[in-house]
Amino acid sequence: MKSWNGVSAVLAVLYLSFVLTPAPAAAGPAQDQILKHYQDLAGADVTFSADRGKEFFMAKHTGGKPKSPSCTSCHTKSPLKSGRTHANKKIAPMALSKTKDRYSELKKVKKWFRRNCRSVLGRECSPQEKGDFLVYMMGQ
Amino acid sequence: MHTTMGSKDNGTLRSDAEAPTRRANMQTKLSHSPEQQTGQAAGTTAFVVSAYANANANTSLEKSKSASTAGAMLIWDLPLRLFHWLLVGAVTVAAITGFLAPEWWLDVHSWAGYTIGFLVIFRVLWGLWGTFYARFRSFIFPVDETLAHLRALAQKKPGHYKGHNPAGALMVFTLLGTLIALTVSGLIILGGQENIGVLAGYVSFATGSGAVEFHEILAFGLLGLIGAHLVGVLIESLLSRENLVRAMIDGRKSVSPVHAQSCVGHADTSAVNQRELPPAKRVWARAISTVLMVLLAGSGAAWALLKTPPNGYVAMPANKTYASECGDCHQAYHPSLLPGSSWKKLMAGLEDHFGEDASLDDESAKEVYAFLRRYASDKWDSEAANNLRQVATKNPITITATPYWQRRHKDIGKSVFAQKRSAPKAIVLPATKMR
User: Fold this and answer.
1) Interface predicted TM-score (ipTM) over 0.90
2) Which of A113, B57, B98, B344 has the most CB atoms around it within 10 Å of its CB?
C-alpha cells in the first residue's frame, strides 16, 4: 500500500510540474517576421535586449498624454496579467505565452506602436525600442 | 326546429324576444312563434334547447312570479365571469406597471396589454354568440328606456333587470371601447417608439410618440370609469338589496319577491331559463372554440404582421474593420448613436481622441468613416437614433453628453461611473439583420 502511495505521489508531482511549468514562449513564424521587420529597420549591428525592453516597459516617460505616463498605465506592471484601457475595456495580457495571437500581424503592431508611443512618449518609438519590447514580451 | 332563418321579420321578432327588457307584448309574441326565434337567437344549434314545450306559460305573470321567487338564477355564464376577473387582473397589472413602475417593466406592461386585447376580443365575440345575458343584443337599450332608467335611479327606484340594466350596459360598452382604444394605442406606441410588437413594421417613431398622450388620457379615463363602475355596482347592490359582486363570482342573481313585481321582462320558467343558459358542456365547447379561434387568428395575424421588418431599421451588415479599429479601447459603438455630422468631426480628430491617440491608417479611416456615415442616426428611425439625434452643441462627438443621455442618467450617482470596473458608459445595439 505504502509503496503505491509513494509512486502515485511521485507521479502527481511529475504531472503537476509538467502542467504548471510555463511553456517556453513559442514565437512562431509570424512573430519572427515582425521581429525581422524591426531588425531590418534598426540595422544589423543592433541586438535587441529583453532586459532593456522590460526597463522601457516599466519606466515612467514624459512628453505624452497626461493620463498615460507609462506602458503600464494600461497594460499593468505584469505582462502576464490583463490590463484596462482608459475607457475601461479589458486588454488581454501582453505576454505571448498568455495571448497566443500577439504580435502576429504587422499592421496591428505598427498601429499600436504608433498610437501608444505617441500617447506615452509623445513621439514615435525607435526601431530598437520596439524590438526590445517585442523580444521581452515574446520571452514572457 | 331551426327551419326559418334570415328573414327580416324574424330579425325584428328575435331582437324583441331576446331583450329581457321588452314587456308583456313581447311575451305574447314569444308564445306565438318560439321556434323561429330560437333558431335565430342562437344562430346555431348549440345553444338552442328544446325548451318551448311550455313557452305559453310565459303569458301568465303569476307563473313567472312564482318561478322567480324560486331563488337565485344563473345569469352570468362561467366564461363571462372568468373573462371579467381575468380582465380585472390584467388591467391591474397594466395600471400598476403603466402608472407606477419604471420603464424596464415595459415587458410586463405589454404582456398585460396583449392579455387585455385578447380578453376584449373574446368578450366581443362572446357578446355575439355567448349565452343569452352575455350577448350585446340582450343589453342594447333604446335611448328613452335608458333615460327612464336613469330617472328612476335618481329616485332610488330603478327597475330591475336580470342581466345588465341600461346604466350598466352603457358602462360595459364604454369600458370595452376604452380598452380597445387603449390596446390599439399601446400597440402603436410599442411599434413606433420601441420598434417592437406587431405594429413595429408599420408605425414611425413620430406617430408612436404622438400616441403617448392619447394613451395616457385614455388610461386616466379608464381609472375614472373603473371608479364609476365600482360606485355603480355598490349603489345598484344597495338599491336592489343584492350583492352584485357575488353575482359576478357565482353567476347567480336572485330574483327576490321584493322586486319581482317590478322585474322587467321576467318570463321565467325553468324552461326559458334553460334557453338562456344552456347546459354547461355546450357553453364550454363554445367558449373554448372561441378562445382557440382568437388565439389562432391572433397568432396568424401576428405572424403575418411580424414579417415586415421594424419600421426605420436599416439592414446593417457587421463591418470587421470598424469592429476592430474602433472596438479595441471600448466597444464599437453603434453608428446610429450619433448623427453623420458628429462622426465627421470625430473622425477628423483621431490623433487626440478623448485624450488618446486613436489614429488610423488612411485606408482603414476611409472605410470606417464610410461605414459610420452610412449607418449614422440620420438613417434610422429607431428609438435610440431619434433620442440621441440631438447632440450637445459644445460636445457633439460624445454620446454621453447628449441631452437625452444626460437626462436619462441624471439620477445615477457619479460614484457609479467612477468605479474602476463599471461598464463603458454608452449603450450598444447589436448589429441588425433584415428578416
Assistant:
1) no
2) B98
